[in-house]
Amino acid sequence: xxxxxxxxxRWGSNPGACGVVAGELEELGYQPLVRQLTTGDFxxxxxxxxxxxxxxxxxxxxxxxxxxxxxDDELFRLxxxxxxxxxxxxxxxxxxxxxxxxxxxxxxxxxxxxxxRQMRGIVVLRCDxxxxxxxxxxxxxxxxxxxxxxxxxxxxHLPYMGKMTERAEVIYSLxxxxxxxxDKSTIAARLADAKSLAEVFSMEANAWRExxxxxxxxxRLSAHVREV
Length: 228
Hints:
Layout: E1 3-8, H1 17-27, E2 30-35, E3 42-46, E4 50-58, H2 59-68, H3 70-81, E5 84-90, H4 107-119, E6 123-127, H5 132-144, H6 166-176, H7 184-194, H8 197-200, H9 205-210, H10 215-227
Parallel strand pairs: 1-2, 4-5, 5-6
Antiparallel strand pairs: 1-3, 3-4
């Protein structure tokens, strides 16, 4: 029986790319189910791990999404909803010459970006544009090997990012509706601990400034909460 794998239909600059990868996965023995996912681009189950989620980023999108704050929000939600969260980087990225002209990034900065996500428990995978299906299948087979002796419990050195409270989820949604807000999950959790929803939705620009936002962003947030 073919193993099901969920695929989000919205990724890829080429409209037909999703269908091509789905067809390749089918040839490799999977049952691709293309639909709109709430988080991640690929999702499948592995015995002994649970749900495995993959967020796929081409190199340029990796850097742009880091600048506008989408990357960490996407990875946070992937970690929250999956037992194992993976970032699949598609395209060459091995030296300074490979860095796209985005935001003045140097190779060292990109290397630190990737290492930082690994420190937070994100598994980083790589492949070229023609090898997406093969890379996912190879990762699935690696995780499915029995027995799983490579995975050992270890002391948690970094803060655990568990599920947000209902109040934090509402605040997170509010922040997500304003373009350019970064680190939304942390801010939402902090505001949820300190304020009621009524207080958050009545915050003026100066109150948003006290939360660390720039003057421009504080004014945007203040105007937005008056509209909702």
